[in-house]
Amino acid sequence: MKYPRKTLAAVAAVAAFVPAVHAADLESLFTDGKSEIDAFWYTRDREVQEDSSNPAANAKPQRNIRASVLGVEGTYFSGLAFGFLGFDLGGHVSGGTSSAGQTEILHYNFTAPSHIPNYNGTIPKGADDSYGYGLERANLRFQFGDQNFGATVKAGFLPIDVGTIGPGYGLFTHSYRGIEIKGNVTPEVMVGYAWADKYRNEWDTDYHPITNRFNQGLNPAGMSNIGYISFLQTAGFRYTPKAVPGAFVDLGIGESQQFRRNAQAWVGYPVQFSPDTKVTFTGYLQLARYGGANADLYFKQSAGSNGGQTTVTSTEWYSSLAARLQHRDLSVDAGFAKVYAPGAFYSPERGMMLTRLTPYGNSDRRIEREGIAILDDFLFHGSNVFSLGANYPIGKAFGIPTLSAGAKVFYATGVKARADHVSLENTPSAIEKELDLNVTYIVPDGMLKGLMFRVRPSFLRFSKNFPVAANRESDNDIQFHVIYSKQF
């Protein structure tokens, strides 16, 4: 086909002009972008407390952790091209030594011999490698409107924070392959939806299919009755009234295909008693139930020890109430939580409720719950969890206002965890308790402003009638963190 000479001239003129326009539009991807870098040094020593009165208990896999790790995490959030198109790109690298246990930072190798034997001399499989890396973000971002009325759509590899899926609380970022849509209907109302079909946890280098087995079925010794969950999806609603700063209502529902569904409500309301004193009240409720082919396979994983119990589809729930007092520099918080999870009792969790949509290592969970401690989540069926904590800038008395110390204690009664071939009715109630301490110093100014040093000792104890098979034990743990964050 022949084009008239004038048409060719016009096309040439437009072709010469369009790249200039595109170059100007594309330039904003970088001129308006921002970067974040987080660097840290992490050391940890967790020692399982041996029970001399019960040698059999000491024959289970050794769960000590001894590690020293350096890590860097970097993220770039671009500006917008054409007023609506951007991208996010981020990842991490780490390296160090791990002579026992799993750090959840270095790459974990399920086929490597453990660095240390069990108490009975056998060598279990599974150990950290000396490195770790991961692509955390590689997604397109489409933005429309503004905070009063608008939406952001992200697609690709990304962390998800909407509905019943949310960020973890590790040193690195967990991520999905999927899509997240969040938008403001009004300045006070946000709605959102997310869908994902693959997941990468922070101790893995790749994105893998989501499964009904722990750690995505990557352990060759644990592949029986594995079920592949085709997708997760969740929707959320959040209301933050401007008339009451700090108040919120957060609602969410979620589903993992043929495995589990959940719904949650999280509310908070602050009461200002004086210019120096405020109390924030919060409440949280999650309802969940198993169901579908992947759930059936999940319960079959425990058929040899749970009496042949098939999928329990009754509703499980976790509820909590808490109050946080802020008086000048002193912060005090108290909480109570209750767990009802009879289905979890007969599952591979042996009594621990899943607040995520999948087994451990396959998806994140929200962290609104008040009963989260450093060493355990206090999620066993029947648990009545009491917590009390305080934090204060102790350095103020010495002219070091950024030196603070805190402590929090957790005490749970009614704890029900499953031993082999023992029914729920015949399981005695156990006691679980934990003490978490922390001392933190932050450099207040200068070139290293924001550099944080933190020491975090923790102590976890179970009563003697807590079953050995539940794969939890009394621990002494101490962590030391040096963390530096920079935005530019």
From TrEMBL:
State the signal peptide span: 1-23
List the Pfam families hit by this protein, alphabetically: OprD
Q: Which domain of life is it from?
A: Bacteria
UniProt keyword tRNA processing, yes or no: no
Q: Which UniProt keywords apply?
A: Signal, Transport
Q: Name one GO cellular component term.
A: membrane
Could you tell me which Gene3D superfamilies the record lists for this protein? Answer: Porin
Q: Does the keyword Transferase apply?
A: no
Family membership noted in the UniProt record: Belongs to the outer membrane porin (Opr) (TC 1.B.25) family.
Could you tell me what this protein is called? Outer membrane porin, OprD family protein
Organism field: Burkholderia pseudomallei
